[in-house]
Amino acid sequence: MNRFCRLIYLLFMAGFVLTCRQSSPEPDPFANSTPQLKSVTFSGIPQQNISIDQSAKTVSVRMPESVPNDIDITLELTDNAEWANKMTVARSSSLFGCDSCFHIYLKAKSDVSNSAIIDYRVKLISAAPLAVGASSTPLPYVIRNSNGSYLDIPMRYLYGNRLPRQARFTYDKTGEELVIKRDSAFSLSPSDQFRIKYGAYANTLSIYLFDEKLMPGSYHVDLILDDGTKLKVPQAVVVSPGTPDFDYEFASYLAYPKINFGYRVAAGNTLTIDGYNLFAGEVRLELVDGKSNVYPLSGVGFNRYGRQLQVPIPATLSLGQYVMRVWQNDIRFPYSYCLRVNVAAEGQNRPVIGIIGDEAAPCSLVAPVSVKRGVRVAFSSSLKQQVLTGVFQNATLKLTTLSGQESYYGTVVPFNVNRGWDPDESITLPATIPPGLYKAVLQVLDAQNNVVAESEPYGRLLEVK
After folding, report:
1. For 37-126, which CATH class?
2. How many beta carbons lie within 10 A of that of residue 405, not counting itself?
């Protein structure tokens, strides 16, 4: 009996010890002195989708089908920790624009020099394969729209998945195909800027189309994934022409921009004009002379992508300078500048005056250009190119009264690349020239000051003051 009692006692004591051990508290994972992230919350993402690996310093986020555009972020830290890159609200595109785009940087509160940053990487895991979002309306895109270089396509389960490697656009009228590749980087941009990317707005895929050859009309789009899977975008993409634009303001450093000189073409020849949104049925052209006479231009050839015009210039058109006006349907474009056209004789190679004074972008040949006497003013001519190629020439600006009875001359300072910060041409009119209206031509002189060439008459009158 005593032996039995002792056995019962021993069993009781063993159970008591085990019970005490099981009820002992678990060690605190945040008890060490290292600043740590205890929890993180992203609005729109269930908390059970977020886990933290303290040893790997990784926050894994299982991404839902869609997220809000603006994400509220809440952190719980250990008492000794401080959020170094604190942001309580962020756009979803900046947080989830790629896997591990977002990092949570912590530091010790006592570390005033920020010398020991602790990096928690936020890793995205998709809950399902990438899919196209639903939309009841077509997707609009305007060609060369400066406010919208990208086409945005609504998506589901976008974040945490690899982006499509291709977007294939098929033109519904002809079946012509345009392929945009994910890994085609912009030639003038950092290598991580690609043509298929996460959109600026939540749950959208952005495709860069600004430089692509598109035609007005309807396209359907297929997205091709890395494994060859094809995602068909159910809604059509409807492409519309944007504002007509011209390659008019730019040129190499060896020549003045066309905005100074204008286009040059011989009467009876065809003028080639490059630009964008120059589509048949949308654009018409006309020339206006210095007396406000209007000459409509017909027989214009249009590039199918709206990138170029072939404009026949009538052989009967008077020689001289014109302003070309552009109309898109019933709206006159462009707003910011007018286009100048110099119509010359066939085979004629004469000097050309670009601008005088503050006439940077003429929109009229009627109003005179105001020039003060005794003051150095801006001037440009085709002599700049000749000087750059090694042929140095003297020049003068000849001013003739409207009656043609009196002539006066102003000194042209030619282009000189060795003149430092101000190599451009300029002109100064002598104070002895009487105020009034004048016609102007540029005269090229040899070493003996003989006139060896003379420009066409300047397209505007000069008002000398």
Report:
1. mainly beta
2. 7
